[in-house]
Structure formats: structure tokens, C-alpha cells
Amino acid sequence: IIFWYRLSHTVITPLQTLETFSSKITGREITSITEDTAPALLARTRSDQIGRLAAALSEMGRQYLITDDQLDQQTGRLEAILESMDAGLILENMDGKVLYCNRQASDWLGNDPAEIIGRFAINEIQNLTGSKKNAQLDEFLGSSAEEMIEISRSRPDGKTQDLSLNRFKVKDGRGKIIGTGQIWQDVTNYQEMDRMKSALLSTVSHELRTPLTSIIGYSDSLMDTEIEWDKTKRERFIWRINSESRRLKMMIESLLDFTRLEGGRIEILMRPCDLNNLIIDVLDSMELEEAARFELDLHNELPQASGDHERLRTVIRNLFENALKYGAPNQNILISTETDLQNRAVVFSVKDGGTDLRNIDGQKLFEPFYRVDSGYSRSSNGVGLGLAICRGFINAHGGEIWFDSDHQGTEFKFSLPILQAKEEING
């Protein structure tokens, strides 16, 4: 009896204690190991094999907890990275159910990630396009191959969003496929750039060809030695060549200005300027027939602004051209300036009696290559960059540009900060 008691007390019970401790470690029930933990106590009080086993098990437990803590930290860092991605990420198991959905994907789906997990991924992806039919998407969803497609969908604000869906296989450390994943990327800006490039090439090839054709045609006529042109016709041909050359020059300048604005390379030479004088300069450079249509109401004591004279002339000229193109042909165009004391700004305005633009998106109107269909519009000369350049130049001056419209026509306005006393001294 004494033998069995000593055996139980010195061998069996300690081994049972160590077994229980080992089970708790593997079950992740132990969160810390101190000097009072059972293996540590045994290691201090026993110097035999059981004591050495207890010490080894205690050390193994400490290493396990360190490794487990590092794993939690790594998992936390990985999750933080995935949650901060601009792209959407969906991970699904072999049954096609969502195992993980990051913040961006859940935002596009309009649901909380917890609600998406456990659902079939194919249904969630179909929700991206709503009820809109898409044969390419149906083919993508019906396949399990690694591939990429692009789809368009309507966002809650009504704007179009282009998404790239890229499917990939998820494998374990031995290379076995354990599920699939999808990365969703917003490629709207890239698609818009492609559309702009296409529009630019199409518009430029047409618009530049027209004046070039006229220049070549009239110059060939003048060079024809077999025909004796009278003085009046020669002068008319030369005038046409000069006019088309200037038109071509303005188109090229518009393209250069646009590329500089898009590339952020525009230079603004700020100096004191009188907005009224700039308006008169632009009118003096126009043909008499066109200039005669403008009616002036300029503020006599308009404060000076600060700006780049040449850039502002371009803005004013573009707005004049826009009013001539889309205004009612038999109505005068009103040009006015005023002071906005509340916002410490000078305000320019050009008002035509043409198209009602109340149904037009105000931001879209200032986008490159956007054109308005108008019954008053004359021939659609130009490359469709006038208003986009106006917005870019005015924003670069720290000003604002906008329009008001009703059934009587449209009024474009821009404002520039009033020149401060310190700026005037420096200028």
C-alpha cells in the first residue's frame, strides 16, 4: 500500500498534471505561464526525470505562447492590410461560400461583411450589376478558371463605375486547391482616360483636317500659274488662308493647354490685372461682325485681381466663343463685371439667349470633349476643350467658375480673388 501510495504521489499524479497542462496548451486554454504554474513548480521541486520533463514542458509552453502571440500579430497586420485595400477582395471555399470579404468589397455590395460571409459568392457578384444582364459576367460566373473580366455598373449615386474582376485559385502549403478568391478593382479612371484618348484622336483628326484642307486648297489656287486671279479674289484667298491658319493655331494652343493642365505642368504668372481691360483686349481681337453682338455692362470701379493675363484672355475668349456658338443668333450677348465684397472677389459674366442647360450635369459640362446639342449651335468647330480649359485655368488662379441657366438662356460666370494690398506692392 505504501509503495502504491508513493508511486501515485511521486509519479502518476505529476504525470497526470503534466498531461492536463499539455492538453490545455494545445487547446489554447493557457494564456500565460508563471512560476506558480504546475510544470514550473514541479521543475523547481524535482530534480529527477519528471522534474526535467516538467521543465521541458514549461519551456515548450512558453515558446508556444510566444509563437501564438506572433501569429496573432501577423494575422492582425495581414487583416489590417486587406481592410485598407482600395480593391475589393472576396475569398470563398470549395462550396462557393464566402469565407472573407474586405471593407471595400462590402461597401460596393452595400452590406456589412458579417452579413456577406456564408453566402454564395456567385449571388453577391451578381448583385454588383443589379438586374442588368451581362453575358460576359454570366460566362465568368459559370466557370472556375483563373480569368479576368471588366464590367460596368451603376453606383447608388447614379454614376457609372467600371470594375475589373480577377479570379485566382487559393492553395495551401502543399499546393492543394482549397478555394478561390476574387479581386475587384475600380478602373473607371483608366476607362475614362481611354475614352478621352479615343475622343481626342477622333476629334483632332477631323478638326485639324478642316482648316488644313482650306489652307492647302486656297494656296494651291494662288500658285496655279495657268489662272490669272484678280486682286479681289487674291485678297479673299489670302484672308481665308490667314483666318484658317489662326483657327488652326488656336486649336493647337487648346490641345497644348489641355495636356499641360492634365499633366499638372501649367505655369501661372500672377500679376495685377484689370479684368475690364482684358475683356476689351479680347473683343478688339475678334472680327467686327462677332464683336458687335456683345453688349457691355462693366463695373467702373472694379478692383484689381491677381492673375496671368494671357491665361485669363484665353478663358474670356473661350467663353465668348461658347456664347457665339450656342447663343440665339439674333440676340445680343451681355458681358458684365461686378464686385463680390462678401467673398472679396471680382466676378465676370457672359449671358446668352440660347440653350437652357438646367437638365445638364454642371460638372459634366466642364469635362473634356463634352458637347451640348443645341438648335442654335453653329458648325461645331473646335475640339471640345474650351470649358475644360476655362475650369483648369480659373481653378489654378484660386477662383471659381459656374453657370446659371433658365428658359431665357445661360449665364457663365467666374470669380477671381481681389488683389491684396501686399500683393499689389510686390507686383
Q: Estimate the mean pLDDT confidence.
A: 78
Task: Please state the CA-atom Rg, rounded to the nearest Å.
Answer: 38 Å
Order of helices and strands: HHHEEHHHHEEEHHEHHEEHEEHEEH
Number of strand elements: 12
Q: Could you list the spans in which at least 5 consecutive residues all have pLDDT below 50?
A: 422-427
Helix-strand makeup class? alpha+beta
Q: Based on CA inertia axes, which overall geometry fits?
A: elongated
Distance between the termini: 110 Å
Characterise the protein shown here.
The protein is α+β, with helices and mostly antiparallel strands. It has 14 helices and twelve strands. It has helices at residues 2-26, 38-45, 49-83, 103-109, 113-116, 121-128, 135-141, 188-223, 231-262, 275-284, 288-291, 309-326, 386-396, 421-426; strands at residues 88-92, 98-101, 148-154, 160-171, 177-186, 271-273, 294-297, 305-307, 333-340, 345-352, 400-406, 409-417. The strands form three sheets. It has a five-stranded antiparallel sheet, sandwiched between helices. Strands 7-9-10-12-11 form a five-stranded mixed sheet. The chain has a two-stranded antiparallel sheet with strand order 6-8. A hairpin with a 2-residue loop joins β11 (400-406) and β12 (409-417). α2 packs antiparallel against α3, α9 (231-262) crosses α13 and α10 packs across α12 (309-326).
